[in-house]
Amino acid sequence: NECCNKGRVYNEFSPQSSRTARSEEDRDGLWDAWGPWSECSRTCGGGASYSLRRCLSSKSCEGRNIRYRTCSNVDCPPEAGDFRAQQCSAHNDVKHHGQFYEWLPVSNDPDNPCSLKCQAKGTTLVVELAPKVLDGTRCYTESLDMCISGLCQIVGCDHQLGSTIKEDNCGVCNGDGSTCRLAGANPLRHPGIPWTVII
């Protein structure tokens, strides 16, 4: 996403981290320089890091005082498990209406994908155990989009916040579909027999 500020265009999720470099937008809005990036919210599987800046005006400053970027974009080992499931299971030792439950994640909630909804194992009981999942939790199981501060943020296959870049049919990020190999029967000789795309 790009925003406009007094006719200048800048990226909301700018990855610049220099504390000494002050952009024109910083000076015009009476902002201090951006601070250092925080530790990543996750060690693998894609997380979020933030940077803060301070308003130097006695009034208010235009713009944001916080910015985010993705981090730790390496796959987690299989034994790490699902990040949302880890957050649900953290409540297993907390009584709910006087009873302990083993909590399982409820994913892909179209109304609020960034709340922590969990289901008690072996029951139909579904409870919102937290209004927000931890930063870096995927909004949906089949998406790179992630929750940050309780809001679902778009993440492209390039692992950049705000990016809409997608994988092509061959599984190549920002590809044009030209790298797939076809295997199978010739459809001209055998109509109705599907082709298989080998990635």
Automatic annotation (TrEMBL):
Gene Ontology biological-process annotations? extracellular matrix organization
Q: Where in the cell is it found?
A: Secreted
Any one GO CC term of this protein is:
extracellular matrix
Q: Which domain of life is it from?
A: Eukaryota
Which pairs of positions does the record mark as disulfide bonds? C40-C71, C44-C76, C55-C61
Known SUPFAM superfamilies for this protein? Answer: TSP-1 type 1 repeat (SSF82895)
Query: A Pfam family for this UniProt protein?
Result: ADAMTS_CR_3
Its principal location? secreted
Q: Which UniProt keywords apply?
A: Disulfide bond, Secreted
Q: Which residue intervals define the domain ADAMTS/ADAMTS-like cysteine-rich in the entry?
A: 98-180
SMART domains, A to Z: TSP1
Q: What is this protein's record name?
A: ADAMTS/ADAMTS-like cysteine-rich domain-containing protein
Question: What does the organism's lineage look like at the top?
Answer: Eukaryota, Metazoa, Chordata, Craniata, Vertebrata
